């Protein structure tokens, strides 16, 4: 997971010590939030180097720029006609998934790029991280767990990135979060810029 249980517990003002009841629910909420956001933007958020993809571009006319169908990516190899390209022959923007020849490009051939899409914890942008955290909190709230925290006195109110707010009375909760899908849509103003354009520039 790119967002950790302790991150949400800090939001909620809950102790960082392990909790066998709360922690599994928070973890499931994070996993669901990351999955929903991944579906919305069009790629798996968390990078999995064990699940590498191979993009092949066969061209009959000269090409200079090629865009991978997913981004961001971590590229592990680039070959042209089964020969590994040297670093001075191309530029690779892993954040946008864009490959560009920097030297004379062939008129015919096969370009093969091996890569893994997604973010690492270190490269996960702060704005989309905040969106995932708050979507996870909304999912958690809809499961009635925040009400329990409120009833215990651990939580009174929560403001989420100035986009949504929740206030709590003892034993009750009110929020405009709605369904998990509805929560995601409330974060479209952040997530839309990460949506992938699935096309190749040739």
Topology:
Blueprint: H1 5-12, H2 22-41, E1 53-59, E2 65-67, E3 73-80, E4 83-84, E5 90-93, E6 98-101, E7 109-117, H3 126-142, H4 145-151, E8 157-160, E9 164-169, E10 172-174, H5 180-186, H6 188-191
Helix content: 25-40%
Q: With helices defined by DSSP (H or I, 4 residues minimum), what is the helix count?
A: 6
Strand order of the largest sheet: 1-7-3-4
Instruction: Quickly count the domains.
Output: 2
Shape: elongated
Largest sheet: number of strands, sense, barrel closure? 4 strands, antiparallel
Order of helices and strands: HHEEEEEEEHHEEEHH
The tally of strands reads 10
β-strand amount: 15-25%
Head-to-tail CA distance between termini: 35 Å
**Global Rg:** 21 Å
Q: Indicate the low-confidence ranges by residue numbers.
A: 145-177, 198-202
Q: How does this model look, in words?
A:
The protein is an alpha+beta fold. The chain has two domains: 114 residues, no CATH class; 65 residues, no CATH class. The chain has six helices and ten strands; from the N terminus they run ααβββββββααβββαα. The strands form three sheets. It has a four-stranded antiparallel beta sheet with strand order 1-7-3-4, with no helix packed on it. A three-stranded antiparallel beta sheet has the order 2-6-5, with no helix packed on it. Strands 8-9-10 form a three-stranded antiparallel beta sheet, covered by helices on one side. A hairpin with a 3-residue loop joins strand 8 and strand 9.
